[in-house]
């Protein structure tokens, strides 16, 4: 049986190799074949190895998209179908208008708000207009083929297979999709940190009436409140990551090394999905794709590896409109009136009458009236505010990623970024076989220069821009337009020359901090405030990450195994800084008691010894980790940041400051009392091993989960859900996701270890629903099968040839 499989695969490989190795004269006919598939339709060969990882072999990009769409549907059909309901604006029709939206593709709180926004996108043909743009502003022929093929593959899987996932088995909302649906998902992902965060206000704005204008005519937003809300909005993006690239002179053999550790949701439409994509002679890449997208988002090939981290750049700007006194839906630019565009959208509602909503759009973008429910931006008779998000029409992420997939060096990675300029809200870190390292914050941002902000900020913007990076510009002045860089792919965004970039440092590390401290010895400066800050306090995860990787680089001789150890070191920088001081302060409490926030005295004497003996890690066997975790969360709420440490932050020593816990701060003893009382109330021993109370349940099996909160500084981020009655942290909605540790050893194949923490499929009936989650629980990895000899030698090899039948 094994030899028969091997002959089948070798035959398919030979067929595809012959088909792809066409002479130059055949290239035009190959292009026509991709644009007009044969009567037999698209096809691909999918070789499955351990843990259900598919290796997709195809003749061209359309067929590659076909195989990818088929294989994603096989693992995640319900999650994907749910996302397409969102993109069609049909959640209210199937699930009810008032139900909470899924949150994967926008920040909408309800299905109705989500539908009003996405129906508006669909009815204005926004996606079709972007698709029609010639490359590089629009997608390339290769990416168009992949998107068309992905839709065909998804549809072919639906036609041929019965859905077993109880989440959508038999559901009428699982329907075939089109290339436009696939492209719409790409646009939604790109805009999720801009327009996507403002869906609720975009869909509920109303022009002022004479009655509402009377009291609001002189209303002004609170500048400090707006700055704080903006900082919270983009400072906590709901996603995160760590990544580090090492230069060759720090490694054992002179090749580069890359460790990628994105922190994403464990459920829903922002999950990663693993695959290898191969067009012989053209493309060979392995990695993780965001669901519903046809290209590999983070990954590696035989020459280069890359990963992304969520950046500090603010991907939107706000423009204050000066309104025509006679008409609040007309605004003035250089004294000339422009009417807002009224977008009227109607959505169907389950068991109810259709709902019609209105939106108001300007040359800058939609009118918005708040940053959150507590911080209004009032639309008065004289003033309104509009949001500009350049990613709302950015469909270039797939082409940028495809360029990475074909890269042979970090310079090629930079070249793809410069050509396509499609990365919406992340940094890129990369390493290559030749020993080069790279960090760049090459992302699509509104072209807000510090000079423009100084010249054109409103009174509100003069507070918000320096404090949070969100510009509030005077939209009534034509000279305050964002302008264009000569190397930018479109007006209104920065060109590649302005991007904070660090090449060939011994290490380049990012844990969602600013570009400034990518390498402590080679700080990056000189970029515009919209990209992030310089000389400001670092988060504990950034501080801990730099400490760790700088020490690794200094030690040298690094291998992939060192990357694996770093991922699961589970060190707690907050514990290293503070646990000893807390234990001593605890021991000094009179009578061993402290008063909790409820005014009750709590015996905390046992906690002193537990904290003293704690190993300062978040390993599943660590005793004292849970106690410190619960204490630290309460301490940060009880004690202001500027009173937490005795030694304040210094820009001259950013990695080691602030330090020395202020044990005299009011609230510290109370936080300890509250943590002790909480654990005892839940029946949890203060020295219980972490894994006994930080776990997930999969198929009735309880799996301990290593790692900890980013606010503790832990590299291996796990943000679990606290359920004291259920036994502690009982589910993980967010945290480490698609892990990859990649290097080279002189052979043809990269040396790669990967791990998809939540496993490949959301279907509880799939054999790949929890298999990699068990590995994550045990801090084990998957050895990547990249080269043909490794794929063919897999003891779990299963070959599926998939066709489009017409």
TrEMBL record:
Keywords linked to the UniProt accession: Hydrolase, Signal, Zymogen
Chain coiled-coil ranges: none
PROSITE patterns: TAT
Domain of life the protein comes from: Bacteria
Pfam families, alphabetized: Penicil_amidase (PF01804)
Signal peptide segment: 1-26
Keyword match Hydrolase: yes
Keyword Signal listed: yes
PANTHER family documented for this protein: ACYL-HOMOSERINE LACTONE ACYLASE PVDQ, PEPTIDASE S45 PENICILLIN AMIDASE
Family designation: Belongs to the peptidase S45 family.
Protein name per its UniProtKB record: Penicillin acylase family protein
Source organism of the structure: Streptomyces venetus
């Amino acid at each position: 049986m094994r030899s028969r499989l091997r002959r089948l695969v070798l035959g398919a490989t030979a067929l595809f190799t012959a088909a792809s190795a066409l002479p130059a004269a055949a290239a035009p006919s190959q292009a026509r074949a991709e644009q007009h598939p044969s009567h037999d339709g698209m096809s691909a060969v999918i070789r499955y190895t351990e843990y259900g990882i598919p290796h997709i072999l195809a003749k061209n990009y359309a067929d590659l998209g076909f195989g990818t769409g088929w294989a994603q549907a096989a693992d995640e059909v319900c999650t994907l179908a749910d996302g397409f309901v969102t993109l069609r604006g049909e959640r209210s029709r199937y699930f009810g208008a008032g139900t909470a939206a899924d949150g994967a593709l926008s920040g909408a709180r309800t299905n109705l708000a989500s539908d009003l926004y996405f129906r508006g996108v669909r009815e204005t043909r926004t996606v079709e207009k972007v698709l029609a743009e010639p490359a590089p502003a629009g997608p390339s022929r290769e990416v168009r083929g992949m998107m068309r093929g992905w839709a065909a593959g998804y549809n072919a899987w639906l036609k041929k297979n019965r859905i077993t996932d109880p989440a959508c088995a038999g559901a009428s909302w699982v329907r075939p999709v089109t290339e436009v649906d696939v492209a719409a998902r790409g646009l939604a992902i790109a805009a999720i940190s801009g327009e996507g965060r403002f869906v609720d206000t975009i869909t509920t704005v109303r022009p002022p009436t004479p009655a509402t204008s009377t009291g609001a005519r002189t209303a002004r937003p609170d500048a400090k409140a707006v700055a704080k809300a903006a900082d919270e909005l983009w400072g906590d993006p709901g996603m995160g990551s760590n990544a580090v690239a090492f230069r060759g002179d720090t490694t054992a053999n002179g090749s580069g090394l890359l460790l990628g550790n994105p922190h994403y949701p464990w459920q829903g439409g922002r999950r990663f999905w693993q695959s290898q994509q191969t067009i012989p002679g053209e493309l060979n890449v392995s990695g993780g794709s965001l669901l519903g997208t046809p290209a590999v988002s983070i990954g590696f090939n035989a020459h280069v590896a890359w990963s992304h981290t969520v950046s500090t750049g603010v991907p939107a700007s706000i423009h204050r409109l000066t309104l025509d006194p006679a008409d609040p839906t007309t605004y003035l630019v250089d004294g000339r009136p422009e009417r807002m565009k009224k977008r009227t959208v109607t959505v169907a509602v389950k068991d109810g009458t259709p709902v019609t909503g209105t939106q108001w759009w300007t040359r800058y973008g939609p009118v918005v009236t708040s940053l959150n429910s507590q911080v209004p931006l009032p639309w008065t008779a004289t003033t309104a505010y509009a949001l500009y998000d350049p990613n709302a029409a950015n469909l270039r992420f797939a082409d940028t990623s495809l360029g990475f997939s074909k890269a042979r060096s970090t310079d090629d990675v930079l070249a793809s970024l410069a050509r396509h300029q499609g990365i919406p809200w992340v940094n890129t870190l990369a390493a290559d076989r030749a020993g080069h390292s790279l960090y760049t914050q090459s992302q699509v941002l509104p072209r807000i220069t510090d000079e423009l902000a100084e010249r054109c900020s409103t009174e509100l913007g003069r507070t918000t821009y320096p404090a949070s990076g969100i510009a509030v510009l005077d939209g009534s002045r034509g000279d305050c337009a964002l302008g264009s860089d000569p190397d930018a792919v479109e007006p209104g965004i920065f060109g590649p020359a302005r991007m904070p970039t660090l090449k060939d440092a011994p290490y380049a590390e990012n844990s969602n901090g600013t570009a400034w401290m990518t390498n402590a010895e080679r700080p990056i400066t000189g970029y515009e405030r919209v990209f992030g800050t310089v000389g400001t306090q670092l988060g504990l995860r950034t501080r801990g990450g730099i400490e760790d990787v700088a020490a690794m680089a200094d030690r040298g001789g690094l291998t992939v195994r060192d990357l694996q150890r770093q991922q699961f070191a589970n060190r707690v920088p907050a514990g290293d800084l503070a646990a000893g001081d807390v234990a001593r302060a605890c021991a000094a409490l009179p009578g061993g008691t402290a008063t909790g926030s409820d005014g009750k005295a709590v015996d905390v004497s046992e906690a002193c010894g537990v904290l003293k003996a704690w190993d300062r890690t978040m390993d599943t066997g660590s005793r004292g980790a849970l106690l410190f975790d619960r204490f630290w969360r309460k301490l940060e709420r009880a004690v202001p940041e500027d009173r937490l440490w005795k030694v304040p932050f210094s820009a001259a020593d950013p990695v080691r400051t602030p330090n020395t816990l202020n044990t005299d701060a009011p609230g510290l003893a109370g936080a300890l009392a509250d943590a002790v009382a909480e654990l005892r109330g839940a029946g949890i021993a203060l020295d219980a091993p972490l894994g006994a109370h930080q776990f997930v349940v999969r198929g009735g099996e309880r799996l301990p989960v290593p790692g900890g909160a980013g606010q503790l500084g832990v590299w291996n981020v796990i943000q679990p859900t606290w359920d004291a009655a259920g036994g502690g942290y009982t589910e993980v909605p967010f945290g480490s996701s698609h892990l990859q540790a990649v290097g080279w050893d002189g052979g043809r194949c990269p040396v790669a270890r990967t791990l998809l923490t939540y496993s490949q499929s959301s279907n509880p009936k799939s054999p790949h629903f929890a298999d990699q989650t068990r590995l994550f629980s045990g801090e084990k990895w998957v050895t990547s099968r990249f080269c043909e000899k490794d794929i063919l030698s897999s003891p779990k090899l299963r070959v599926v040839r998939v066709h489009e039948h017409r």
